[in-house]
Write a structure and sequence with these properties.
Its cofactor is Mn(2+). This is Arginase/agmatinase family protein. One of its GO terms (molecular function) is metal ion binding. Keywords: Hydrolase, Manganese, Metal-binding. By secondary structure, the chain is of the alpha/beta class. Helix 3 (62-70) packs across helix 11 and helix 4 (101-117) crosses helix 5. It has eleven helices and ten strands. The chain is globular and about 55 Å long. It has a single domain, classed as Arginase, Chain A (3-Layer(aba) Sandwich), CATH 3.40.800. Bound molecules: manganese (II) ion (MN). The site of manganese (II) ion has 7 residues, from loops.
Length: 324
């Protein structure tokens, strides 16, 4: 009999199943010799939640669509000349509470805490962007604190998502980076930005630890209209200069809608995969950082084979190839 290796419920090339008890009680953990920040183990958690979505719905289906698309990829990642053979697990989908963003984030926080205890770093597949908070909240409590003082947040998005309330809601996909900023990150680096309100413009203006790389500037590498413009090279040298713990959050709408049309809020004039790959590579060359968490959110599709879903799977696959 011929067996098909296709397993629709798991990301391609993930390890069989995670045994928390085994991992928590492993020699390394018991001897205190393992360091979460240095761990190369990753655990995927799908969060099928999209209750605060304001435009194109469907991100609740994204974890399924992305996992299915991952099976079109080869274990050998030819673009990085590297096998995807690192240790990572697919822990399945979170039991979300539809309509209750706060509760869903609390449940996610608990699950990420379980991973942290086993020295497994979280890869969150949204879901809408608000779910980032559950993951970041758990990581903010590392080393018995309750802030992000020693964590740099790298945020790839068309939008700043940094208003305090969106149509009266504090917990929403549109306010997520304000909730993150409330936790006092060391730095918030926003990349691919091209749509924000005057309120958001004014908010970031005097914040020295919010650094912006606008899509129009980093895409047009050879056009130096004025000296204030940051080029793609400036972005890479910024990524090369950061130190310590790093969290990465990718809203799929950072990509140009020509390559990622199925997102919650498609926004013209975005980045392409080569840009994001260059960002990943720059981070992988930086030996002074430890990436402690990653999320990819806002893919909004319910169709198998959707090109935006294929791109999302490729982004996670490239990330795992370099960092697992
Ligand atoms: Mn966005």
């Amino acid at each position: 009999m011929l067996f098909n290796t296709y397993e629709p419920g798991k990301f391609a090339f993930s390890h069989e199943s995670v045994d928390y008890y085994d991992l928590i009680n492993s020699e390394d953990n018991l001897n205190g010799s393992s360091d979460f920040s240095k761990s190369k183990k990753w655990g995927i958690i799908g969060v099928p939640f999209d209750s605060t979505c304001s435009y194109h719905h469907g991100s609740r289906y994204a974890p399924t669509i992305i996992r299915e698309a991952s099976f079109g990829l080869e274990q050998y990642n030819s673009e990085f000349d590297k096998l995807l053979d690192g240790e990572f697990y697919d822990c399945g989908d979170l039991n979300v509470v539809h309509g209750n963003c706060k509760r869903t984030c609390e449940i996610l926080e608990d699950s990420v805490n379980d991973l942290i205890e086993a020295n497994i770093k979280p890869i969150i597949i949204g879901g809408e962007h608000s779910v980032t908070l559950g993951s970041v909240n758990a990581l903010s409590a590392l080393e018995d604190k309750n802030n992000l003082n020693d964590i740099t947040v790298i945020h790839l998005d068309a939008h700043r998502d940094i208003i305090d309330e969106y149509i009266g809601e504090k917990y929403s996909h549109a306010t997520i980076m304000k909730r993150i900023y409330d936790l006092e990150p060391k730095e918030l680096i926003q990349i691919g930005i091209r749509s924000f309100s005057e309120e958001e413009r004014d908010f970031v203006e005097d914040k020295e630890n919010i650094i912006s790389f606008y899509a129009k500037d980093i895409k047009n590498q050879n056009i130096h209209l004025n000296e204030d413009v940051s080029t793609f090279e400036d972005l890479l040298s910024k990524l090369d200069s950061i130190e310590g713990k790093v969290y990465i959050s990718i809203d799929m709408d950072v990509f140009d809608p020509s390559v990622a049309p199925s997102v919650g809020n498609p926004t013209p004039n975005g980045l392409f995969l080569a840009d994001v790959q260059a960002i990943f590579e720059a981070l992988s060359f930086n030996e002074e950082i430890d990436i402690i968490g990653f999320d990819l959110v806002e893919l909004a599709s319910d169709r198998l084979g959707d090109i935006s879903g294929v791109l999302a799977a490729k982004v996670i696959y490239d990330f795992l190839t370099l960092f697992a």
